[in-house]
Input
Amino acid sequence: MFFQSAFARERAYQFTVGTLLCLAIGVPLSNLLLPQESSFALSSYSVSLLGKYLCYALLALALDLVWGYAGLLSLGHGAFFALGGYAMGMYLMRQIGSRGVYGDPELPDFMVFLDWQELPWYWLGFDHFSFALLMALLVPGALALLFGWLAFRSRVTGVYFSIMTQAMTFALMLAFFRNEMGFGGNNGLTDFKDILGFDMQSDAVRCGLFVATALLLLASYMGCRWMLATRFGSVVLALRDAESRVRFLGYSVASYKLVVFVVSAMLAGLAGALYVPQVGIINPGEFQPLNSIEIAIWVAVGGRGTLHGAMLGAVIIAAAETMLTARLPELWLFALGALFLLVTLLLPQGVAGLLGGRRSD
Amino acid sequence: MLILRSLALSLLLTLPVQAESLRDWVDALGAADAQEKRELLEQIAASGDEISDRVFDAFARGGLYLDRRNSSVVIAQRDGARYLLRDVLTGEDLGSAGRRDVRRIAIDNNLRSELQSLQSIARLSSNDEQQRGAAIAEILAAPTDTALKALAARESLEPVPYLQEQIAIGLALQALAGSDPATIQAALLTLRGRVDPVVRASLVTLGDRDDLPEMIRNEAARLLFLAENRLLWLSRLESLFFGLSLGSVLLLSAVGLAITFGVMGVINMAHGELIMLGAYTTWVLQQMLPGQPGIALLLAIPAAFLVSAAVGLVIERGVIRFLYGRPLETLLATFGISLILQQAVRSIFSPLNRSVLTPEWLSGAWEVTQGLSLTYNRMAILVFSLMVFAGLLALMRYTRLGLQVRAVAQNRAMARALGVRSARVDALTFALGSGVAGVAGVALSQLTNVGPNLGQAYIIDSFLVVVFGGVGNLWGTLVAAFSLGVANKVLEPATGAVLAKILLLVALILFLQRRPQGLFPRLGREDSN
Output
């Protein structure tokens, strides 16, 4: 059984890597080189849309890492995603400079509107792309470290962990809705102009962002696979299936969980940082508990504990959402709800299970 | 009988006499000089007749004329070359008169400025309570000696207690501005225990006045201190009440979950939507019984229980029973159900909020003392939540179902071995918890908007309350709900509503991470986590 599943997973791995590479090369070529009339040409809108799906895939990958492999269903991954997004959004706000509506050279529009006199300290440094990118990883990572350290030390597991992560993202949502927080309140951050000095509306930048997303997703996927293939990964799998036994063998269960949780949160932050420049806005709505729980359904539909399944699930559902909300908005929540039911009741191994790749246990 | 008749007779006799004298005064206006006019007007005002209002109005507009033909005073309106006359007191049409026949009764600016206050004096004895209240406020806003005298005279005659109180306070405040120590002292006595901003402001000024004896200034300072102290305590009491009210809402929304999640160990993310269904049941019943919001509300309590319990039964039989022992899957599946229920309500009832009416016996407030009033609907919900809680507690402790539920929760295998049909108990327990959620919805419909998103607002709070109180312990849920409610409202004045909620959430997360078993842990079903 193990060999068979390993074989299937190897095939899925090759297929995933191949697909991502093809996308990274093919999408920008078809957008930039082919004439617009060609039936193979992708519009710039489609490029950004595909980029958005790949961000979701990265987010699903991050959740699959903690849920599928460490057995921790985090309902707060939307918060890590949004925090990464806000870090990138802050950089993009600083890039606007004096081109805002109020033309203030120093302050973003919403601060001028609130009659603030100077930039809050936590906005310092966000003029630099590398600093913002670092923060997009470190802030979610640090939050996950703190939250996980407190939770795993007290052996908070199962649904309790889920409920508490959900409360965390709910609290963050309330906080980010406040104008006094200095993150644009209700409206969030938007009206971005440039990234790294290039116009964000241009096709080249859109394609560049897409390629970056595809390659980073590929790298994250390979990184996760590598991590799970090591001794470390074996211990993580073992503690998912028999936590007490691993503990009695002398492993520090909390530390292993913590590492996986923090890595996963940083991946979610990265996904958020890539997402914001492609959709052009970040607002507190991203912290909604619903968003976080939707990630879980992507993973469940795709098949948790497979990595590639989670990515596939994210893309399938996001694409279905785009189509359904455009044509039959009434039906979308029915469809999503039915999906939750179908997958949990009838398809516990998700689409990946259907396609023959066995869950890694 | 005889007494009554004589009373009626005397009334009949006095009325025309009064009207006579009023008419005499009005007619005398025609020939009076400025000083006499003032005196006459004061007399008219003091007579307190409803009709005097018309005299003042007409006079202020310059529409009061002397009819030279019979030297009576009338209201006249110019119509071409002639004047249309009306009786001042009755408004009766008196035909018309030529330009020479009438003379306008002059009014100078001094008199005009006094008319306002005279009119207020007249209204002091109006039959309409609102008119009197307005007159009192007008006089106190621009006090004149005459008006204040009239007000003082009126104080003992005023039948409505709160108006009488208003007069007393107003007069006392006026007296504070004077310089006679004895009067001020008496006024201070009246103002004792008052916390209105005006009173406190006057006390501050009084404390700063150098022309008064030390003793009075000290007394003013003491009263001020007492008033502020009292105010502080009243606001604390009010926070406590709001906290208990919020606690009762939390209790209602969480107590159903304390059964399904706490006792059975089922994660039901659609719990909020079961609350929402209860609220919509109330709305539907009120639509079916137009004009009877109170009866509909009472009927809604059992109806909502049945609706939500039925939906809960379907959820348990259709979905949850296949997922026992897999809590994370249960969580996702029930979340799917919550989305479907939300969208169903949105499609059936429209996405807009529906307004559920508050019956008359639940609107309004009980004014405990000045500065502290408790609304009836919040008090009713507080009592109702405790009743629901007590009912559930009794059901769990004294009924056969309660015994079986506890048995299955503690040791499913042993309970089955002893003949408890555990699947049936599961279904009934879940239906019970769901039904209670529906009942909670009826109560919540009195406090918040009823819309498709109603349930979402409560689901996270409900879970936190149950976990905080200790899973599997109903008393823990009660303590958790009220302590969280009170803590929230105590924090609120200092931090604002949103920040208070955030702080509490963070504190709760930290607490549960240190003590995941909650306040009062008790063993439930083994596979609950």
